[in-house]
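Re: that backbone. Tokens:
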């Protein structure tokens, strides 16, 4: 259940917070007041893409906070799997902070990823956007809608099918690519044998390239090295007047000569003696290094040749010696395949056939489940549509199965067929349904899904598109029934639907300090009656309008308590 929505610096909203209730929460307001911002913010909090101008001008960031009551064990289990803390009171605070170029997502104060948010969002609520009913116009979506009514039985099978299908497609592509004739096979064998022989003749050793590179650099820079070490040896030795060793020796002799006069000089003498010793050690080490530093033209040429060979192989095959050795083993295995190519093809084709047979078996099982779901959906949707003022509606789920035309979703083509009025020929839904009819069909689907779904919160953004009069009242009744077992949040322009509210909120736009602000506030009974009067479309709230609004409220009250 969604407890509250807190917004800050979002478009026209400076800062506002709304607390929702159980039952039917209705949001109304003038066109342009910012109703889409309120519902859109929930979508943003659940991971929707944020537009560049969503942050209120002059602000550094926008903030959206949704507070849910974790009343579903599946939600708690998902949070525990993600190692996210759950408050003792069972509240889940989902926060999104939107800044230029990036967003920060948190659940109960802990930063989460977009993937984690997506995983948990679908379990918290079901949001029906303004144009979602338009998805019914695409027959490709009908299969997904039908399948959603059988998640527990269908989804494990569909996951198994996906795994097998992907393996089948990979194998099929490989078979197409490897359709070699005898000449192509021989050419590939010749090339592979040459490459394997080239690599083997190189007698590669892992790590050899790095070692030889260092040796080469040392020999290639031998002159510079000798010059630098010789200079350091001379300047730190004892042979030149300005040499450090000679000067340190003199300094030590002078300090020792006067240390008998002052005992405090003993420490200085000791330090200088240590320096003299270290310098002497360095000078001897430098001399030894110079003695060992010999340049061998033959060895240099051998090293350079070997390094060139290694670099050539790395450029041609892989960028590491280990990678080249592994590639050689792969090429040898490929040679084994080509040596017995016909048998290899036979085995591949047999495996492909076995995968195809397994795919068809999975598709048949999936199709059988869909045919059961078909009857469930037809029966329940007709009942729901009758309640939504389709008194003589006919609805069918047409399933056409073609075993040879399977995909990752099976081999069924599914099309929703409808005849909304008596005497009409039943046709594909996208050929006959109007905008208002699509809205009611989508609502009917949502209500059926709600009956088998664990989601407690359903959000409808203008589900009343294209309807009015008696039909609007039927939609209001359906929302009222739905709200008995679920929390429903609905934006509407219709007084019939607003009258059914258990909690009524008004969204208003006003100008404060020369800036436009969107505010949302919960209405009391009198304010709700006045808002119903405004929705009735009159210029002023006359006694007749108020009486009409009161009657609608009374009718809604009686319906909800029947």
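Recovered sequence:
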């Amino acid at each position: 259940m969604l407890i509250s929505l807190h917004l800050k610096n979002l478009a026209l909203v400076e800062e506002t917070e709304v607390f929702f209730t159980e039952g039917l929460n209705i949001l109304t307001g003038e066109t342009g007041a910012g109703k889409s911002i309120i519902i859109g913010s929930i979508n943003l909090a659940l991971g929707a893409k944020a537009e560049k101008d969503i942050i209120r001008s002059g602000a550094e960031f926008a903030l959206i906070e949704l507070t849910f009551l974790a009343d579903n064990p599946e939600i708690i289990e998902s949070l525990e799997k993600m190692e996210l803390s759950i408050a003792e009171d069972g509240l889940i605070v989902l926060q999104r902070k939107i800044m230029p170029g990036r967003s920060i997502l948190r659940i109960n104060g802990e930063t989460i990823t977009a993937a984690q948010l997506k995983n948990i969002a679908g379990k918290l609520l079901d949001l029906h956007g303004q144009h979602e009913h338009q998805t019914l116009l695409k027959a490709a979506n009908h299969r997904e809608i039908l399948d959603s009514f059988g998640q527990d039985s269908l989804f494990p099978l569909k996951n198994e099918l996906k795994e097998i299908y992907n393996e089948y497609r990979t194998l099929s592509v490989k078979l197409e690519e490897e359709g070699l004739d005898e000449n192509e096979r021989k050419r590939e064998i010749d090339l592979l044998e040459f490459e394997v022989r080239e690599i083997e003749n190189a007698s590669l050793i892992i790590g050899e390239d790095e070692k030889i590179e260092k040796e080469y650099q040392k020999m290639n820079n031998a002159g510079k090295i000798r010059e630098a070490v010789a200079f350091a040896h001379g300047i730190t030795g004892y042979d030149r007047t300005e040499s450090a060793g000679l000067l340190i020796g003199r300094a030590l002799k002078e300090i020792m000569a006067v240390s008998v006069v002052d005992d405090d000089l003993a420490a200085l003498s000791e330090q200088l003696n240590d320096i003299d010793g270290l310098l002497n050690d360095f000078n001897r080490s430098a001399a030894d290094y110079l003695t060992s530093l010999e340049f061998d033209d033959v060895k240099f040429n051998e090293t350079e040749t070997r390094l060139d060979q290694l670099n050539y192989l790395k450029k041609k095959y892989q960028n590491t010696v280990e990678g080249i050795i592994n590639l050689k083993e792969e090429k040898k295995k490929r040679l084994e395949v080509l040596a017995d190519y016909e048998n290899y093809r036979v085995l591949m084709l047999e495996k492909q056939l076995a995968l195809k047979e397994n795919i068809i078996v999975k598709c048949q099982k999936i199709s059988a489940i869909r045919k059961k779901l078909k009857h469930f959906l037809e029966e329940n949707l007709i009942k729901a549509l009758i309640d939504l003022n389709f008194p003589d509606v006919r609805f069918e789920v047409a399933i056409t199965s073609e075993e040879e035309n399977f995909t990752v979703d099976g081999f069924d083509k599914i099309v929703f067929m409808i005849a909304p009025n008596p005497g009409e020929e039943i046709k594909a839904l996208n050929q006959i349904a109007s905008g208002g009819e699509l809205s009611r069909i989508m609502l009917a689907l949502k209500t059926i899904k709600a009956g088998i779904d664990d989601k407690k919160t359903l959000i409808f953004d203008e589900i009343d598109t294209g309807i009015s009069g008696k039909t609007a009242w039927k939609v209001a009744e359906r929302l009222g029934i739905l709200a008995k077992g679920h929390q429903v949040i609905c934006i509407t322009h219709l007084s019939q639907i607003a009258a059914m509210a258990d909690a009524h909120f008004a969204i208003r736009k006003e100008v404060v300090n020369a800036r436009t602000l969107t505010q949302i506030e919960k209405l009391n009974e009198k304010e709700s009656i006045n808002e119903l009067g405004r929705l009735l479309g009159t210029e002023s709230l006359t006694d007749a309008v108020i009486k009409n609004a009161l009657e609608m409220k009374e009718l809604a009250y009686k319906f909800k308590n029947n």
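The mean pLDDT is 85. The chain has 19 helices and 15 strands.
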